[in-house]
Write a structure and sequence with these properties.
Layout (H helix, E strand, L loop, with lengths): L1 E5 L6 H12 L2 E4 H11 L2 H10 L7 H12 L8 E4 L5 H13 L6 E6 L2 H9 L1 E4 L5 E3 L18 E2 L6 H15 L2 H7 L3 E5 L4 H13 L2
Parallel strand pairs: 1-3, 1-4, 2-3, 4-8
Antiparallel strand pairs: 5-6, 5-7
Length: 215
């Protein structure tokens, strides 16, 4: 199967796409991993990306596209993949369509995890992590036994700087503006399938698997 997972930040698409890829035995391709691997392997596009990353700048779409295309040509993609976090905008989606046509790959489905903003804010802003051992918590879904302290080592828990309401809202607004239009694009291709992101993690996982078994 060749799949794309869409969804706003905090919707769980990373968690679900990794599990589904493992279940199906296909490649899981995330934008971050893809970039790091290209830089590590010093591919032509990876070397270009490194120059931007070294300066703390965003890597341009043109380079991201080239890195993805290099990744799609690797052998493990021939039996299937899940794209997690790509494409992020209509331009990337259209270029991806062209590349897949050249590779004689037809997308099986695009899974969009739908989740209202109020749930996203609660999920992201409630995350906490230990400054010493790195254990993760959530003040609602998986709180520590003692408020603000790690169960394992007793050290203080912190909230990441980008897990604030302001940052979450900005990331969500960017998603609405640039990525949500992909829903219409893939609906037009007849391959979009929406799932309810309000479901518990395990129920959402089962619902996606059940859908994939039917297509």
């Amino acid at each position: 199967m060749w799949l794309i997972f869409l969804g706003p930040p905090g919707s769980g698409k990373g968690t679900q796409s990794k599990r589904i890829a493992g279940n199906l035995g296909i490649a899981h391709i995330s934008t971050g991993d893809m970039l790091r691997n290209a830089v590590l392997k010093e591919t032509p596009a990876g070397l270009k990306a490194k120059s931007f990353m070294g300066k703390g700048q965003l890597v341009p779409d043109s380079i991201i596209n080239n890195i993805l295309e290099e990744r799609l040509e690797q052998d493990d993609c021939k039996k299937g993949f899940i794209l997690d976090g790509f494409p992020r905008n209509l331009s990337q989606a259209e270029r991806l369509t062209g590349k897949l046509e050249k590779l004689n790959i037809k997308l099986t489905s695009v899974i969009e995890i739908k989740l209202p903003y109020r749930f996203l804010e609660e999920r992201i802003c409630g995350r906490r992590s230990c400054t010493t051992c790195g254990t993760s918590y959530h003040i609602v879904y998986s709180p520590p036994k003692n408020e603000g302290l790690c169960n394992n080592c007793g050290k203080a828990l912190i909230r990441r700087n980008d897990d604030t309401e302001e940052v979450v809202k900005a990331r969500y607004d960017e998603y609405v503006e640039k990525t949500r239009p992909l829903s219409d694009y893939y609906t037009g291709l007849g391959i979009l399938h929406e799932v309810n992101g309000e479901l518990p993690i395990e129920e959402l996982y089962v619902s996606i698997l059940d859908f994939l078994k039917k297509i």
